[in-house]
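Page 47, continued from p. 46.
Same chain as before, 310 aa.
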Amino acid sequence: MIRTVLGDIAADTLGVTDSHDHLFFASTKLPGQELDDPAAAEAELRAFAAAGGQALAQWTPIGLGRRAEELPALSEAAGVHIIAATGLHQAVHYSPEKLPRLLDGLAERFIAELGEGLRGDEEPDGPPLPPRAGLIKVAGDFHQVDRHASVVFEAAAAAHHATGSAVAVHLEGGTHPLGVLRTLHDRLGVPAGSVILGHLNRFPDPGPHREAAEAGAFLGFDGPSRANHATDWHLFDLLGSLVESGHADHVLLGGDTTSAAARAASGGGPGIPFLLTDIRARVQRDFGPEVAGAFFRRNPARAFDADWRV
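Result:
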């Protein structure tokens, strides 16, 4: 089953999926670029649906303006499944006053959001809202799992073991995928097939990508966006390497729209629809419909599938 904001669905009904994006997102690292407009989010999601999109995983975790109360209505209005996230980002995204409160009882908070419902960003210990989380978002640091990440990873692993949900990882600059996998899989016992390694396009080294795929992890290539364009031209070389080495069944693609300026509906784009109008079109042309079906349908259905226990 895959847990969406409107309820659990069979994995094989998920459809064409943007495996990493943001309808709402607000961070002190991007002042003035908050994704906080429900009307703009709906316009972006409708454009994605018009391009053939059927599902979107929003990786916005606790405390970063994920607007949980808006997600069910958006899903219904656009006719797109939305998978919401619990979890916690890097420490730099939170104020020093807020972070200690969030870290207290973190595993229990994750489990509650997966099983009972998301909390409001300003009331992390408040009553649950109707939508439940369907994945756990965490983050490493540049070439390392720092002290903050170690605490969050332990909570995420506990939540995975309690619920069966996937753990999706922001890799800073695309770095340290194998170190992250060692921490989650080898030390904390999270199955590699329940780990999604994000932003691999930002560090275009195919060797670690193949090794992570061989271990069983899912590989997230989540661009392009304005923040990542310097490495966009490497994307198809990296995908081609994985296809040629027999690892097409481990690839996930997403838009990762994190700023208002990057939206197609209300900014300068390319926005969420670009993933389908341009990236998927080239995947089909370069690698064929079978590979495109794996990247956009079959792999997301496996990556976000869970034997839900709460």
